[in-house]
């Protein structure tokens, strides 16, 4: 008689979702290369690959099929929600820096570099992502919602 009661209690507790205050701790996740405005401001057209690597660090994505393109990607995630996503793309031609594209604003060129300024592509500022895609509840989630759990 005790076994069915304990089994029913165990199944009932396992089927319920925990209350909001009883959720596991989730670590903030920083992935990729964090590239700051100051790091991008150091870039100048004509820099070699090693100079760009020194200024920005090793690229997250150096595709062997696109040798003249490096991608620096950064994602900040808190509680399984993406709060910030940045993508910086560095374009080379003949192993020299041609332009920078992506989510960090390029600094204004000094007066002596005014002739090189048009070679630098304008880039946009990063905007935080508010919410990700909505999660579907599935069959059992919809069933539990209809029942009232």
Give a structural overview.
- With 149 residues, the chain is α+β, with helices and mostly antiparallel strands.
- It has one domain.
- The protein has a four-stranded antiparallel sheet with strand order 1-2-3-4, with helices on one face.
- Strand 2 and strand 3 form a beta hairpin.
- The longest helix has 14 residues.
- The radius of gyration is 25 Å and the shape is rod-shaped.
**Number of individual domains:** 1
Low-confidence stretches: 106-133
* Oligomerization category of the chains in this entry: single chain
* Shape call: rod-shaped
Q: Give a short account of the largest sheet.
A: 4 strands, antiparallel
Give the proportion of residues in helices.
10-25%
Count of DSSP E strands?
4
Class based on secondary structure composition and strand pairing: alpha+beta
Distance between the termini: 27 Å
Order of helices and strands: HEHHEEEH
Strand content: 15-25%
The radius of gyration is: 25 Å
Biggest β-sheet: strands ordered side by side in the sheet: 1-2-3-4
Count of alpha/pi helices: 4
Provide mean pLDDT, rounded: 74
Task: Give the topology, please.
Elements lengths: L1 H14 L13 E4 L4 H5 L7 H8 L12 E10 L2 E13 L2 E7 L35 H10 L2
